[in-house]
Amino acid sequence: MTSAQPNPEERLRELGIELPAAPKPLAAYVPAVRAGDLVFISGQGPLKDGQVVWAGQVGADLSVEEGREAARLAVINALAALKQEVGSLDRVVRMVKLVGWVNSAAGFYQQPQVINGASELLEEVFGERGRHARSAVAAHTLPLNFAVEIELIAQVQ
Amino acid sequence: MTSAQPNPEERLRELGIELPAAPKPLAAYVPAVRAGDLVFISGQGPLKDGQVVWAGQVGADLSVEEGREAARLAVINALAALKQEVGSLDRVVRMVKLVGWVNSAAGFYQQPQVINGASELLEEVFGERGRHARSAVAAHTLPLNFAVEIELIAQVQ
Amino acid sequence: MTSAQPNPEERLRELGIELPAAPKPLAAYVPAVRAGDLVFISGQGPLKDGQVVWAGQVGADLSVEEGREAARLAVINALAALKQEVGSLDRVVRMVKLVGWVNSAAGFYQQPQVINGASELLEEVFGERGRHARSAVAAHTLPLNFAVEIELIAQVQ
Asked: Which pTM value belongs to this model?
């Protein structure tokens, strides 16, 4: 099923996901910059309506499952930034690269499982085009105590 | 005022900023690599004349304001590396992407405010072309105990 | 000697390095994605035959020299992923950018020396074309307790 080329905007509707307004940068930068056919998207946290939904360290304050939800919400915000930059997610050629930082307790080693919350959504929405290269790493703290921060590079038409 | 297209080399002079010699890599790599019209600049710390000016954790050893100064100095070193690669900063089409790591005390959440020290300088020097995508994250330690480390991608003519 | 343009596949043989099968992703992503002439390679750890060879914090559990070995092994895995994507390493035009995260003890500042284990191998194998831009940073923990994680961007024909 994921080998088909889904229509991403339609898939979002089927999944009941309404993209928010593009996240307002926390500071002196912009949500996304296009250079040639690559769009570089700023690091996003698990914010909804301007509120941090998932805060704290995964492996201490939050479970892996909660961390996955945080990663899913952060990547939805990244898609909102991407859509604002290019007009429609149907113009995505390929999700190229994702970096996921997990706010991690000492001795927590399951960052890949947490960041899967983001990676799996990209595959659900974009099918094969959603399969990306990725680094999942740890931080001992993050801006606003985000449980995760996700940055993304996409190739577009 | 930032919507105008300033002449970056002239703006640096107006700001009284003299770019240093391109930073000598700490190890087996180079300060910048160009691939097509993108220049990837190596991670830079708050060094001046080969000395670390700002060392330690922001939120413990250093204030947010000191962290901002560290970020500003690190991005000046990044601009020096970029200038060495392309000859003149006037050839910059767009600052594309910045990643800022803040050497952070446990429970410190203001990485965006710290990295603004770098982002605001880019906008002062490059105007609209200086507005970039960005991730601000934390590390519990950094090379040479740098207070911040900044890496940059620029699009050039 | 490194100014010559070596044949990378031949150099690997001379160095006695046999690339493993491309690393199996730990999760819902792929080892490498090509966009134009850039290949983005997923973060790699010091795994061999599916086992973590170097685990723990450099500066506490591991020495700098052991960390260097971990970085060398991680970048060999990155080269395996790159080769799978493009067919032969002889198609590499330039190693563009490397990010190295070092699983670091508190107060450990020698991340550049550790990541040199990866950078020096790239120069041994690719000569001048192997000289890359780089960021070396710290994490207090990493997936599977990897001693290092390495991600890479390469430019290819």
From this structure: 0.95
